[in-house]
């Protein structure tokens, strides 16, 4: 029995150092929902924060209770990858005092909201935008996940290849000194 436990423990140690088990930030997505004149302001805000051009998001279905019809512009978003995304994430975490709640973390990602963009370090109030908030989603990935996403010869990815909640919490604590409540 002890020999079997030693073998299992040895496999766990090997898998922690395995290159296919490393976690990385795939992308950071900034988004804001608005319509009409507020949509233009939200689009401009995301462009200022990210330094990239934000795209307009259109509705896909009809929701009569909210007055939404297909093709109606309902929000804006911008996706950032690489070193620029990590630098921006550090600034955005500064807006919420580098603290997150455990319930904001899910499998493969976590999300948080910023109520006013003037809370972000380095940004000042702009009269033409007013006071607006935005949502931030950070997506994590392990190497080899592209097998599931590619168009030709798509393959299955096992559950162990997903980034779990406790792994995200550990990663954020080590790399960004983020505290979780």
Characterization of this structure:
The chain has a single domain, classed as Ribosomal protein L5 (50s Ribosomal Protein L5, Chain: A), CATH 3.30.1440. The protein is 32% helix and 23% strand. The chain has helices spanning 2-16, 37-50, 83-95, 146-149, 165-176, and strands at 24-33, 55-58, 73-80, 99-100, 105-106, 109-114, 134-141, 179-180. The strands form two sheets. A six-stranded antiparallel sheet has the order 2-3-1-7-6-5, with helices on one face. It has a two-stranded parallel ribbon with strand order 4-8. The longest helix is centred in the N-terminal third of the chain and has 15 residues, at 2-16.
List the helices and strands and how they pair.
Elements: H1 2-16, E1 24-33, H2 37-50, E2 55-58, E3 73-80, H3 83-95, E4 99-100, E5 105-106, E6 109-114, E7 134-141, H4 146-149, H5 165-176, E8 179-180
Parallel strand pairs: 4-8
Antiparallel strand pairs: 1-3, 1-7, 2-3, 5-6, 6-7
Please identify the structural class as seen in this structure. Answer: alpha+beta
CATH class: Alpha Beta
The chain-level mean pLDDT equals 91
Please state how the strands of the largest beta sheet are arranged side by side.
2-3-1-7-6-5
Question: Could you describe the largest sheet, including whether it forms a barrel?
Answer: 6 strands, antiparallel
- Per DSSP, the total helix count is 5
* CATH architecture level-2 label: 2-Layer Sandwich
- Radius of gyration, taken over Cα atoms and rounded to an integer in Å: 20 Å
Shape: globular
The H/E string reads HEHEEHEEEEHHE
- Helix share bin: 25-40%
Low-confidence stretches: none
CATH topology descriptor: 50s Ribosomal Protein L5, Chain: A
The count of β-strands is: 8
Tally of individual domains: 1
Give the name of the CATH superfamily.
Answer: Ribosomal protein L5
Q: N-to-C terminal Cα separation, in Å?
A: 39 Å
């Amino acid at each position: 029995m002890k020999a079997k436990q030693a073998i299992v423990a040895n496999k766990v140690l090997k898998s922690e150092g395995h290159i296919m088990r490393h976690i990385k930030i795939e992308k950071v997505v900034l988004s804001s929902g608005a319509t009409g004149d507020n949509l233009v302001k939200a689009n401009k805000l995301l462009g200022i924060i990210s330094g990239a051009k934000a795209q307009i998001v259109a509705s896909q279905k009809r929701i009569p209770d909210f007055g939404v019809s297909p093709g109606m512009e309902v929000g804006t978003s911008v996706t950032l990858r690489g070193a620029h995304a990590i630098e921006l994430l550090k600034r955005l975490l500064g807006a919420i005092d580098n603290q997150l709640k455990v319930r904001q973390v899910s499998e493969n990602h976590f999300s948080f909201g910023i109520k006013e963009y003037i809370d972000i370090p380095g940004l000042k109030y702009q009269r033409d935008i007013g006071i607006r908030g935005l949502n931030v989603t950070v997506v994590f990935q392990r190497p080899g996940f592209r097998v599931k996403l590619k168009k030709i010869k798509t393959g299955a990815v096992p559950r162990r290849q997903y980034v779990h909640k406790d792994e995200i919490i550990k990663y954020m604590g080590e790399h960004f000194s983020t505290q979780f409540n």
